[in-house]
Amino acid sequence: MKKFFARLKDYSGLIVVLILLCVIFQAQNQRFLTFDNIIGVMRQLSVYGIVGIGMGFLILNGYLDLTVGSIVGLCGVTVGMLMTRLDMSMWVAMLLTVLVGGIIGLFNGAVITATGIPAFIFTLSMTGVYRGIIYLITKGATINKFEDDFLAIGRSSFLGVPIPIYIFIAVLLIAWVILSKTTFGRSVYDLLPIRGNPNHDHTVVYDTHNHCAEQYANNGSLTAVKAHTANDCH
Fold first, then answer.
1. For residue range 72-96, what is the model confidence (pLDDT) as tens digits?
2. How far apart are CA 1 and CA 5, in angstroms?
3. What is the pLDDT of residues 169-188, one digit of tens each?
4. Mean pLDDT of 136-140
């Protein structure tokens, strides 16, 4: 517990700002701090939080990815085409879509590391490419007639809490375990010295290129998960 409260001090400024905002919003609208509103806000933020976790891994390595919005759309189209056009089962289609998201992310990371193009420039340019692929596949038409079980992922609740919130918490816990309890997670932090971390063990050498590609693949996969939980938008 001491470690927990010690770490809270590092975020004391953000906590104070959050409390002040809650007080101000509550004063403006008495329904702001009600259970239903809090759950509604968490429902909206959970789908973005899933992508934020993948982006967090990238930021720790000094990279970013501006294609996440386009990848969400492309993965949404992919799962829709697999289920409605190829009559594939929901779970198989979802797993393949996560794989597609990972492959797209891996492609981004591989090109960035191989060419040395700044991540900002490359991912910004690929945003239009992936959106173009969406239009080529769908020809501008919408995809509908999804299975009720698939739609339930983004729309149903358990014990009054929307399913996407549970998924976000699960992904968050997995990310925490990876970063704090595994060799791979610690190596992510060890790459920071290359960008100014004084606690780096300089006797250990990491392949930064492989780490970059892995983090982009991870981000792409989590972006695909976001596409599943945000299926209200399909």
1. 989 989 998 888 888 888 899 999 9
2. 6
3. 999 999 888 888 887 777 77
4. 85
Q: What is the DSSP letter of 34?
A: S
Looking from the CA of 124 toward its CB, the CA atoms found within 13 Å total 6
- Angstrom distance (rounded) from CA 188 to CA 206: 10
pLDDT at 156 over 60: yes
> Is the pLDDT score of 10 beyond 90?
no
What are the E-state strand segments in the chain? 157-158, 161-162
Amino acid residing at 124: L
CB atoms within 10 A of CB 112: 22
HSE, CB side, 13 Å, CA atoms: give it for residue 207. Answer: 9
In this structure, how many other beta carbons lie within 10 angstroms of the beta carbon of residue 12? 9
User: In a 3-state reduction of DSSP, which class is residue 117?
Assistant: coil
Q: How far apart are the first and last CA of the chain?
A: 43
User: Distance between CA 189 and CA 179 in Å, rounded?
Assistant: 8
- Rounded to the nearest angstrom, the gap between the alpha carbon of residue 229 and the centroid of all alpha carbons in its chain is 11
Q: Name, in order, each residue with C-beta under 8 angstroms of 180's C-beta and a sequence gap of 6 or more.
A: none
Q: Which residues of 30-47 are buried (b: 16+ CB within 10 A; e: fewer)?
A: eebeeeeeeeeebbeebb
Paired strand residues for 162: 157
